[in-house]
Q: What sequence folds into this?
């Protein structure tokens, strides 16, 4: 199969590898918008608390965003909408049309988590997770940035050896609207039994836009990109590798290495500091980013930003709904609060404010603030952790 493609109108179109074609606002992604910190702004933020611990952690992120707005003179308005299991309970659908309409009209979206045992029946008509996939697709959010770093204060919270994780700082860029998550999927009764199909599909331009963004992000960091695939087995990975190699021609200053996903999984825990930017397929990125959370000490620490071609982005912690601890007020809100920092940086262009949240998190950790997942004997509650971070916000 070639890399030539046909346009949606049916006529031939130039291969996406032939030259610049992406309308994406790359400058914004690679280096945050420059902003005058004295300027004030109005922004509409949609909150999608979702299920499980979602409402608890988004509640803390909202308080932090409100404090930032007060401090800098911005006006943020918040509107809460339904998604996930709670949306199924209330409307029958995991992504009600009103939610999508509100999100499209917003400047940014802050999401908690979706899913839980209540909606896990394998024969159910729909699932909470479908709402999350539909909003990612519906808003064209194809790029999921998952920064992973080790915090000196939390080094003991990781089960890995100190010398392995010290100084670790990487960015996992997960493709978010294609691949195994969005290919054809069905069950079929056959004479020999039940047949079940999942499909890993990509268009070449979908690979190109995420890989190109990865090169741009790598250019703004240490200029080292690892493209992760399974090219020894999967056809889609062979094209992925081919596309990545061709895009490299436009980035002479960035080194590109290809790595198979299985050995990447091992290298993530044996030599994590050898990575800077990793770019990979949707499901590989889902799995590798949970693994990478071990480097930070807890899944509860990791933020993410899902971005598309415009400024609108969806910000969420990478952890799930944690139904086992939901409602107990013990979930770690840091991943969500750090996601709020990414929201300020990537959707609102408020770099100074974003950095002030990140600094407040570091200072709170340095002062000993810990939730239960971070291995403390005397842990703070979700709101206690939020307050500890607020207290360090300047
Ligand atoms: C994530 C989550 C989701 C995903 C689930 C809840 C659908 O695990 O954001 O990593 O698999 O993308
Ligand atoms: Mn996941």
A:
């Amino acid at each position: 199969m070639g890399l030539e493609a046909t346009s949606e109108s049916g006529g031939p179109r130039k291969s996406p590898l032939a030259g610049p074609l992406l309308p994406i606002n790359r400058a914004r992604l690679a280096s945050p918008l420059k902003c005058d910190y004295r300027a004030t702004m109005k922004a509409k933020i949609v909150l999608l608390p979702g299920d499980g611990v979602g409402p608890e952690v988004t509640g803390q992120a909202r308080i932090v965003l409100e404090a930032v707005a007060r401090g800098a003179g911005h006006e943020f308005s918040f509107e809460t909408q339904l998604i996930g299991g709670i949306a199924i309970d209330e409307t029958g659908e995991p992504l009600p049309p009103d939610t999508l309409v509100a999100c499209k009209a917003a400047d940014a979206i802050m999401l908690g988590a979706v899913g839980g045992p209540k909606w896990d029946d394998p024969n159910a008509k729909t699932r909470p997770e479908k709402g999350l996939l539909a909003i990612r697709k519906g808003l064209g959010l194809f790029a999921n940035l998952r920064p992973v770093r080790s915090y000196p204060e939390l080094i003991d919270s990781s089960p890995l050896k100190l010398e392995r994780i010290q100084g670790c700082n990487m960015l996992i860029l997960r493709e978010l609207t294609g691949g195994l998550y969005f290919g054809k999927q069905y069950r079929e009764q056959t004479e020999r039994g039940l047949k079940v199909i999942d499909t890993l599909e990509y268009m070449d331009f979908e690979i190109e836009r995420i890989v190109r963004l990865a090169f741009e992000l790598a250019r703004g960091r240490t200029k080292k990109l690892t493209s992760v695939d399974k090219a020894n087995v999967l056809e889609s990975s062979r094209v992925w590798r081919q596309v990545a190699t061709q895009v490299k021609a436009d980035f002479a200053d960035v080194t590109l290495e290809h790595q198979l996903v299985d050995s990447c999984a091992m290298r993530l825990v044996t030599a994590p500091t050898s990575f800077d930017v990793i770019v990979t397929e949707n499901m590989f990125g889902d799995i590798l980013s949970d693994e990478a959370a071990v480097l930070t000490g807890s899944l509860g620490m990791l933020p993410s930003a899902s971005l598309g071609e415009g400024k609108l982005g969806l910000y969420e912690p990478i952890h799930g709904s944690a139904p086992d601890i939901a409602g107990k007020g013990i979930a770690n809100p840091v991943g969500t609060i750090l996601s709020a920092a990414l929201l300020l940086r990537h959707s609102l262009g408020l770099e100074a404010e974003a950095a002030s949240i990140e600094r407040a998190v570091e200072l709170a950790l340095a002062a000993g603030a810990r939730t239960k997942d971070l291995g403390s004997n005397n842990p703070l509650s979700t709101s206690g952790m939020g307050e500890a971070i607020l207290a360090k916000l300047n």
About this structure: The radius of gyration is 21 Å. The pocket of manganese (II) ion (ligand 2) is lined by residues 286, 290, 318 (CB under 6 Å). Residues 159-296 form a domain with the Isopropylmalate Dehydrogenase fold (CATH 3.40.718.10). Residues 271 and 321 are 30 Å apart (CA to CA).
